[in-house]
Amino acid sequence: METPPVFPTPPPITPDYRDRRGGLIFFGISEIILGAFCALMVPLTLFGQIMVARQSGHEPMLYLLMPTVLIFAGLGVGLIWLGIGSIQARRWARTLLLCLSWIGLVTGILSLISLVLNSGAMRQAMLQQGGNELPAAGANVIVAMTVTFAAIIYVVIPGALLLFYRSYHVRRTCEVRDPQQRWTDRCPLPVLIMCLLQISGSLCFLIMPRFWSVIPFFGTLVTGWPARLLWIILIIVSLCAARGFYRLNFHAWLVYLLTVVACLTSTGITFIHIELIDYYRAIDLPEWHLEMMAKNPLATGNYAFASTILSPVAFVGYLIYLRRYFTTR
User: Fold this and answer.
1) 98: helix, coil or strand?
2) Cα(139)–Cα(135) distance, rounded to whole angstroms?
3) Nearest residue to 67 (alpha-carbon basis) of 201, 208, 228
4) Residue 13 pLDDT > 60
5) pLDDT digits 0-9 by tens, 235-258
6) Radius of gyration of the chain (CA)
7) Residue 143, class by beta-carbon neighbours within 10 Å (0-12 exposed, 13-18 middle, 19+ buried)?
8) pLDDT in tens, 60-112
9) How many angstroms separate the first and last alpha carbons of the chain?
């Protein structure tokens, strides 16, 4: 009787990636903690404004704080939701966190550059407000601590998230544990980032109704219902562009690019002829608040100018970069 042939045991199949489930859980818990911190900022912001109003003897301007409060609340809910998705190794959570990391890092770098360039104006503003009670050395320490804290918030945290979630091993871990195709997989990542910017920008402006009453328009400030109508048109254009971008529609890209260039040109021409403090006065800020802003170099000097110029230039450059993803068909 012949013995059956013995074949060698094939070697075990090893995956082409290293499982990063532990890292997904760690970063997911960190995002939940950050979300809880953002939620905690909601009552702290309101309490701080009430205390400042009591010390200055003025009424608390809660209407100016509502956009900040709602943004903190939205960030809290979003980070907690994304943290749970990261713990569950969901593909949509990884993609959205990667998009938010890119947005946070780029805007953080621009903000940090503007802050460093205007650290002298910040020091001058603190000395003016502190009088003789704040020595120059103390102002220098406060400025250094502010820049360091801003570097951690603006650069280190989004940079760490970006390095982790863009890893090949993290992507493969999420694809294996969540094999179903998600809506975030149907659009290139750079275009999806622009869609998120358009949607989030429109939502942020919807919660700031006081700013609806004024709009810069080629050398003048349009107020009242004409301004509100123009803002509504711009919001509709932005939301429609987000939909067209997601579908990789070339005409949506072209219309939105021309709209952005026209708006930036209009704003630039307006603030060449009109002081920034006049814009704040047009949105009906209290006179005592305007006097404080007029004395603050950060509100009227190079800091405001640098912050206004850097971001739009980067935004238009990114729009032009996205042209490669759109076809005329």
Assistant:
1) helix
2) 6
3) 208
4) no
5) 999 999 999 999 999 999 999 999
6) 25
7) middle
8) 666 667 777 888 888 899 999 999 999 999 999 999 999 999 999 988 888 88
9) 71
What is the CB neighbour count within 10 angstroms for residue 224? 10
Contact, 199 vs 324, CB < 8 A?
no
Q: State how far the Cα of 120 lies from the Cα of 143, in Å rounded to an integer.
A: 9
The whole-angstrom distance between residue 38's C-alpha and the CA centroid of its chain comes to: 14
Q: Please identify which residue in the block is written with the tokens 């800091």.
A: 303
Query: At residue 304, does pLDDT exceed 60?
Result: no
Q: What residue segments make up the domains of the chain, in order of their start? A: 187-329
* Alpha-carbon distances of 329 from 243, 247, 321, rounded to whole Å: 16, 12, 19
3-state class of 258 per DSSP?
Answer: helix
Task: Identify the bridge partners of residue 215 per DSSP, sorted by sequence position.
Answer: 222
> What are the angstrom distances between the C-alpha of 323 and each of 191, 209, 219, 251?
10, 33, 31, 11
Q: How many CB atoms are closer than 10 A to CB 291?
A: 11
Mean pLDDT, range 52-62, rounded to an integer: 63
pTM of full prediction above 0.90: no
Token digits of residue 123: 């020091």
Query: Residues 79, 166: contact at Cβ < 8 Å?
Result: no
